[in-house]
Prior knowledge:
By secondary structure, this protein is of the alpha+beta class. It has helices at about 20-60, 105-110, 115, 140-160, 290-295, and strands at about 65-75, 75-85, 90-105, 115-130, 160-170, 180-190, 195-200, 210-220, 225-230, 235-245, 255-260, 265-270, 275-285, 285, 300-315, 325-335, 340-350, 355-365, 365-370.
Amino acid sequence: MNTTRSRPSRERPTTSPARRPRRWKRKLIIAIATLVALGAFANGPGFRLVGSKLLAKQLAAAGLEGEFELSGTILGGIRIDNARWEGSRGIAELKVGELAIDYDMGDLLARRWIEAIGPVRLGNVEATFVAQAESEKKPLPEKLTALGKAWPLIAEIARQEFDIDEISLTFLDAERQSKFALENMTLALDGGIGEWSAGAIQLPNGERHRDLRAGLAVNGDDEILLTGLQLADDLGVAQLGVSPPPPGGNFPRAQGQLDLCGGRLAITPQPDSIEHVHVELESGEVDLERLASLIGTEFPVAGRITRMATGLNGRIGDLDSITISGSVGGRGLAAFGLEHGRAEADFSIAGETLQLEPFTVAVAGNEVRGN
């Protein structure tokens, strides 16, 4: 009888099908946790680390060196606190107590860069600007051309939400002498409508105007309009509008209305020119006594200007090049012991020379004409 011994089978152990998905689940969970951790690091600490270095590099390229605290996240917005920089050109010193910028990530991903920004909060800022030396300054037409190209972008930014508070700006000349200062300035804008105010403005001659306020608005044609700025009892800006260059032009367009001692002057620069400005008495009458008091001088003639249309021609900043010509009329005039007179004249002023041609003077019913 033959017997055959059977050898035990040596089959490799197989993994249970039920355990295989568990292993993949574990790997998937580890991968997701790793991605979440990396995302959290990139969104927070990584963003602040890289952002601080990039911002410091950009500021150094602009001539600013200093320190600041950067906080925030990629998804939640940016915040800078307790910043202090010193500059070698343009900006001599800049202190920022708070700058917070929120944005909409969806708009950013859709490349709607401007619409994504807001609200922006800026507070407790002190800045000192130093003018360039004459040899380093860019020509004014070049500056205005650059401003004209950028104006639609500026108007679009002004339509976003801004809350700016406690800003003090000092402007110095190239010799670092005080030139112009704005103190405790605020600006609130939302959707292109808002208000601007300043605790005080200091002029180069030391004169100060306090508690100034004005309305701001951005119109549909990208015009930024300032209204209702009262500088003194007898001096105010009824409105000042700046808009993009006209078709084919380079410079922004500007026009305004000035309230002066009872009269309203319309001021209109010639389009695309920095050498021609038209000034006209649009309504009311300019009281000469109030005007003399406003500018701190005495006029040999008292009364009221009832009509004026003048043109100013010349280069801004070069008084010797400026000429003024036009026509003027007044009533209720008093001079040389005579009262209740009226006068009309065409005139031109060049340097210290005044020319009247023709002119009419009438006092107590007697009229004199001349050339």
